[in-house]
Amino acid sequence: MNVDILFQNALKIIKEELSSLSFNTWFEELKLVSLKDGIATFQVPMAIHKKQLNNNYYDIIKNALNQITGTNFDLEFLLEDEIQSKEEAKQKENKQEEIGVPQEFKNRSNLNSNYTFDNFVVGNSNKFAQAAALSVAENPGKMYNPLFLYGNSGLGKTHLMHAIGNYIIQNSNRKVLYVTSDQFINDFININKKDDQGTNFNYVDFFKNKYRNIDVLIIDDIQFLGGATQTQQEFFHTFNTLYDDSKQIIISSDRSPDDLKLLEERLRTRFCWGLTVNIFPPDFSLRTEILRKKILAGHFEQDIPEDVIEYIASNIGSDVRQLEGSITRLVAYSTIMGGASITLDLAIDALKDFISKGISEKNDIARIQKLVAEFFQINVEDIRSKKRSANIAFPRQVAMYLCRTMTSESFPKIGTEFGGKDHSTVMHSVEKIEKEIKVNPDLANIIEKLKKDIE
Ligand code: ADP
Ligand code: MG
User: How far is the CA of 421 from the centre of ligand 2 (A)?
Assistant: First the structure.
C-alpha cells in the first residue's frame, strides 16, 4: 500500500474519534511523508501543529497506523524545511555507508523519547531512585559514578535510564549511548566477524569508537553479561576508559551488585564505587497514581471511574507493566463491547484472566496473615498495620517469616503487605525468627503447626 492511501485509511479511523473541529484544525493539512525504520514522519504546516499532535494526538495516530499496518511506529512531526535538512543529512550519511559502515552501526543514542522524568510518577518506593537519576542527569560524570539501579522487573529502571539520557541530550551536547547488555555482547561478538562481508570496515575500530567515544554510557540489564567471560573483560576495559575520563556510566540490574554472582569480582567492586540504588515495588497509593497518570496520557474517550482504578490497583501486584496492560485491555474490551461504559462490573469481567494470577499471589500473603492472626487471637487488620505493641509485633514477625519461607514473594512485597515496612525490616524479622526457632522449641512447634495449617 502506498503511504498516501495508507494514511487516508488511518485518517478515517482518526476522524471517527475526534470532533470535526479538532480534526479539521490538526489533521486537514497533515501529510505522511514516510514510514521507515520504525518511524512515521509527518509534515506539518506550523510549529503549533507539532506541539499539539505530539502532546494530544500521538497515541491516536499511533494506534490508527498500528491498526492498518500492524506495526508500532514512533511518530515524528516536522516542518517542511526540517524535512529537507534531514534529507540532506541522510545523503551525507549514505555517503559514509558507501565506505563501509553498516547501517546498524550508525551513531545513535538508542534513546526512547517517550520515557522522561516528566512522565515518571514518583512515590515512596522510587523517590530515592528518581532523585539519584535526576542528580546524575543534571551533573553527568560528576555526582555519582557509576549509578547502579537495581530492582525487580517492571519497576521503572529502564524508564529512568532513558529519562536520564533524554535529559542529558536535551540540555547539553554530550553524546549518550543506551544499550542493553545483550547489544553489548552482540557488538563484541561482531568484532570477531570482521571482514566477513568483504567490506573494509574495521569492527575493532567501530567497537572502540562506539563505546569509548561517548560521554554517557547507559547499560541496561547487566545481569545478562554474566557467563560471557570475554565480553566481561571487554566491558571492564570500556568501563575503566570511560571512568578514567570522568564519563558517566549508568547500569541497571534485577539484583544488587553483590548478587551478580556470575560477574567477575573486579566488575562488581567497580559497580559499587558510585551510588547503588534499590527501586522498590509501588505501594497502593503510587499504583493508583500511576494508573491515573496513564489514563490521562492515554486520552481515552471515556472516563475511567475511581472505583475501577482502585480495583486494579488493589488486585494487580507491583509490576507497572501489568498496570499499564490492564488499562489497555480494559479500554479495548469496552470498545469491542460497542463502547460499553467502563464500570466496576465491566472491569471485573474484562480483567478476569488478567488478574487471577495477581489475586492468588495476594491470597497467599492474605491467607497466612489470617491464619496467624487466628492462631494468636488478634485482629488480622492489626497484623497489616504499623502498630508496634508486642502482642501484635511478634505475630507479625511470625507471619512475615512464613510469607518469606512459604511463598515466592520478595522482601519489599511482603513489607508492603505488612504496614508498609521496608525490605530491611522484613529481612531482619525473618532472620530473628529463624534464629529463635533454633533455640526455642515452643516457637518451633508453633511454626510447624502454622505451616501445616497453611498447607
Ligand atoms: P524495568 O526496566 O524496571 O523492568 P520499565 O522501566 O521497563 O521497568 O517499566 C515498565 C513500564 O512501566 C514502562 O512502560 C514504564 O514507563 C512504566 N513505569 C514504571 N514505573 C513508572 C512510574 N513510576 N511512572 C510511570 N510509568 C512507570
Ligand atoms: Mg528494564
Answer: 25
Encode pLDDT of 6-17 as tens digits.
Answer: 788 889 999 988
Residues 6 or more apart whose Cβ sits within 8 Å of residue 334: 302, 340, 341, 342, 346, 350
CA-nearest residue, atom 14 of ligand 1:
321
Confidence at residue 106, expressed as pLDDT on a 0 to 100 scale: 45
Q: In this structure, which ligand is nearest to the CA of 159?
A: 1
* C-alpha 63 to ligand 2 mean position (Å): 24
Give this prediction's pTM: 0.61
Q: Which of 292, 320, 322, 323 is the best mutation target for the ligand 1 pocket, counting ligand atoms within 8 Å of the beta carbon and taking the most?
A: 320
Ligand 1 atom closest to Cα of residue 160: 6
Q: What is the mean pLDDT of residues 156-180?
A: 96
Which of the residue ranges 70-79, 123-132, 208-217, 340-349 would you say has the lowest mean pLDDT? 70-79
Let me know if residue 121 belongs to a domain: no
Instruction: Give the range of the structural domain holding residue 175, as residue numbers without chain letter.
Output: 127-278
Question: Which CATH number does the domain housing residue 450 bear?
Answer: 1.10.1750.10
Residue with cell 496520557: 297
Closest Cα to atom 25 of ligand 1: 120
In a domain, 135, yes or no: yes
Q: Please tell me whether residues 161 and 132 are part of one structural domain.
A: yes
Q: Kindly report the average pLDDT of the chain as a whole number.
A: 87
Residue 146 pLDDT grade (very low, low, confident, very high; cuts 50, 70, 90): very high
The CATH number that applies at residue 169 is 3.40.50.300
- CATH number of the domain within which 307 lies: 1.10.8.60
Best residue among 122, 134, 159 to mutate for probing ligand 1's pocket (most ligand atoms within 8 Å of CB) is 159
Cα 344 to Cα 333: distance, rounded to the nearest angstrom? 13
Asked whether 313 lines ligand 1 (CB < 6 A), one says no
Q: Is residue 110 part of a domain?
A: no
State the burial class of residue 408 (Cβ atoms within 10 Å of its Cβ: 0-12, 13-18, 19+). exposed
Last residue of one domain, picked from the residues 97, 118, 141: 97
Cell triple for 105: 552501526
Same domain membership, residue 194 and residue 263: yes
Map residue 447 onto helix, strand or coil. helix
Name the closest ligand to CA 160: 1
* Cα 130 from Cα 164, distance rounded (Å): 10
Per-residue model confidence as pLDDT tens digits over 351-360? 987 775 544 4
Residue whose Cα lies nearest atom 7 of ligand 1: it is: 158
- Give the span between the Cα atoms of 51 and 57, in whole angstroms: 10
pLDDT at 386 over 90: no
- 351 and 369 housed in the same domain: no
C-alpha cell at 307: 472505583
Q: Are residues 392 and 446 in the same domain?
A: yes
